[in-house]
Write a structure and sequence with these properties.
Layout: H1 2-19, E1 23-27, E2 33-37, E3 43-45, H2 48-56, E4 63-65, H3 90-95, E5 100-104, H4 110-118, E6 123-126, H5 130-144, H6 148-169, E7 176-182, E8 187-188, H7 194-201, E9 205-206, H8 220-226, E10 230-234, H9 242-249, H10 256-259, E11 263-266, H11 268-271, H12 278-289
Parallel strand pairs: 3-4, 3-5, 5-6, 7-9, 7-10, 10-11
Antiparallel strand pairs: 1-2, 7-8
C-alpha cells in the first residue's frame, strides 16, 4: 500500500504538468534531452526541410522565423529571416522570442545549437537518414508540435506512393546509376544517403552504393570503370549551366549512359531535402531510370 502511495506522489506532478500545458521532457533525434513547451506558439526553423514539414503539418501562424534558404511553400517567403542555416543570426533569433527552435544535424552547427540552448531556448535536433529516416522525422515533428493526426496522414500518403513505385519496378532489370551532386570535383552519394535510397527504391543500382562516405569524390576513371547506364545530376547549384554540364558528359562516348541518351537533371529540392516531397523525388528518379515503364521517352 505504501509503495502505491509513493508511486502516485512521484507520477502525479508530471501528469499535472502535461495537463496544464507546461512542458515535456523529450529525447531528440541525436539523443539529447530537451524540455519542450507543451503547445509551442512561436517556432523557428533552422533549415528548409524543417520549414516544409511544419507547413505541411498545417502550421503557419506558429512559424516565427525561417532561414534565408527557406523557399517552399510560397508562404515561407513571407516569414521573418534569421540568416543562413549554417550561420544564423543569434541576435535575430533572440529578438523573435521563440518557444521552440528546430534544427537539423545535416547543416546546422553544433556551436549554434549549444549557444541557443545556453540562452535558455528549447532546441530540438532532427537527423533524418534515408527515406525511412524522413518518415521518422515527420512523425517526431508531428508529435513535437501536437499535429500527430496530420503527420500520420502525410506518412500514409507517402507510403502508398512509394509502394506503388516499388511494385512497378520490382521485376524490371536494375540499371547501373550514377547520382551526381557535385561538379568540381565530381561528388556522388554513398551508402545510406537519401540519393542512394531513391535509386534503390526506384529500381536501380547505385554504382557508389558501397561507399562508406556519405558524399565521396569520384574520378572519371572510376566512373568509366563502373560504366553507369544512367546519370542523374542534382540541381543543387542554381547558378550552374546544367545543359552545358550534360554536354560535357556527352564527350565520354564509351559510358553506356551517354550511348543510351540517359543523362538527366533532377530538381534537388525533391531529391536532396528530407521532407514529405521526397516521394515526388522518388517518382522523378524512377521515371529517369525506367522511362519506358512510366510512358516516357529518353
Amino acid at each position: 500500500m505504501i509503495r502505491k502511495v509513493l508511486l502516485v506522489l512521484f507520477v502525479t506532478p508530471i501528469l499535472l504538468s502535461f495537463a496544464e500545458g507546461k512542458e515535456r521532457l523529450l529525447i531528440d533525434e541525436t539523443g539529447r534531452s530537451v524540455r519542450i513547451l507543451d503547445s509551442a506558439k512561436r517556432i523557428i526553423s533552422l533549415a528548409p526541410n524543417i520549414t516544409e514539414i511544419l507547413f505541411a503539418l498545417g502550421l503557419d501562424e506558429e512559424i516565427a522565423g525561417v532561414t534565408d534558404y527557406c523557399d517552399y511553400p510560397e508562404a515561407a517567403l513571407r516569414k521573418p529571416r534569421i540568416g543562413g542555416f549554417s550561420n544564423p543570426s543569434i541576435e535575430k533569433i533572440v529578438s523573435l522570442k521563440p518557444d521552440l527552435i528546430i534544427a537539423t544535424r545535416d547543416g546546422n552547427q553544433g556551436e549554434t545549437v549549444n549557444r541557443l540552448t545556453e540562452l535558455g531556448f528549447s532546441v530540438y535536433w532532427i537527423d533524418p537518414k534515408g527515406f525511412d529516416g524522413v518518415i521518422t522525422t515527420i512523425k517526431n515533428v508531428g508529435d513535437l508540435v501536437g499535429r500527430q493526426e496530420e503527420s500520420k496522414e502525410i506518412i500514409r500518403k507517402m507510403g502508398a506512393r512509394k509502394e506503388k513505385i516499388v511494385a512497378h519496378t520490382r521485376l524490371l532489370p536494375k540499371p547501373r546509376v550514377f547520382f551526381q551532386v557535385g561538379d568540381a570535383p565530381i561528388v556522388t552519394v554513398g551508402k545510406g544517403t537519401l540519393g542512394d535510397d531513391l535509386i534503390r527504391l526506384a529500381g536501380g543500382w547505385s554504382i557508389s552504393e558501397n561507399e562508406t562516405l556519405s558524399y565521396p569524390v569520384y574520378s572519371m576513371e572510376t566512373i568509366l570503370l563502373k560504366a553507369p547506364e544512367a546519370i542523374i545530376i542534382s540541381s543543387m547549384d542554381s547558378k550552374k549551366n546544367y545543359p552545358d554540364l550534360i554536354k560535357r558528359w556527352e564527350n565520354w562516348k564509351s559510358i553506356p549512359a551517354v550511348k543510351r541518351n540517359a543523362i538527366y537533371v533532377v530538381d534537388s529540392n525533391l531529391t536532396d531535402r528530407p521532407t514529405h516531397r521526397i516521394v515526388e523525388g522518388l517518382e522523378a528518379v524512377a521515371g529517369m531510370i525506367h522511362p519506358e515503364a512510366f510512358g516516357k521517352k529518353r
